[in-house]
Amino acid sequence: CLALLGAALSRNAANRDFICYWSSARLLRAHANPYGTQAILGLENAAGGSYSEPFIMRNPPWALFLIAPLGYFSAPVAGFLWLVTLIGSALMSIRLLRSGPEKPPLVVYLFAPILGCAMAGQTSIFLLLGIALFFRCQERWPFWAGVALVLPAMKPHLFLLLWPVLLVHSWRTKQFRVLAGLAVALGAAIGVALLFDPQVETHYLAAMRAEHIEGQYLPNIPCSLRALV
Length: 229
Known about the structure:
Layout: H1 2-10, H2 18-29, H3 37-46, H4 64-67, H5 75-97, H6 106-109, H7 112-120, H8 124-137, H9 142-148, H10 162-173, H11 177-196, H12 200-211, H13 221-228
Helix pairs in contact: 1-5, 2-3, 5-7, 5-8, 8-9, 9-11
C-alpha cells in the first residue's frame, strides 16, 4: 500500500509542499543559492508545476542537511523516497512514544495530521520524530537527546515554550549535556549548509525579507486572529 501511494503521489510531486524542498536541494547540490527565487521558480515549473511565484522553503539553513540528498534524484524519484522516509519516521515515532507492551490502536496510524503531512510532503513529521527521540533518550543519554532536538529546531517557532524551559531545567539541575548535544548538532548542520553555500545565512535572511510573510494569510489560528484585529 505504501509503495502504491508513493508511486501515485510521485507523479504529482510538483504540486505538493515537497517541491520546495527538492528545488532547494537541487540548487544546494550545484553550490548555488538554495533560497534563490528565480532559480527555484524555474526548477519547480520544469518539474511540472505551474507557479507564477516561487514556492520557497522557509526552514532555516540548519534544516538543509535533511533535504540535501533529494538534489541527487529527479522530482518523481525524490518524491517517492521522501514519502517513504516520512512514513517510516511516523511509524518510528509511534513506536518510541507508545507506553506499555500493547500495540497502539489503528486510529493512531490514521491520525489526520500525520496523513496530511505525509501526503503534502511536509517536514513536520521529522519534528515529531525529534521530540519522540528526545523523550526516549533524555534520562539515559542526555547528549543524544540534545542531538535529536535539531529536528524540532527546523521549525523553532513551533516550540517557543520548549527552549526557555530547557534552559531553566539545565541551569537548575546543573546538567548541560542536553544543551551540548543540541549545540553540536546545530553546528554540524550549519557546517553542512556552509559547505555547499558559504553565504547561506545571508541568502536565507534576504529571501525571508522578500517573502513578506506577515502580509500573507496562512490557515492557522494566529493568522486568523491577526486578520480579525
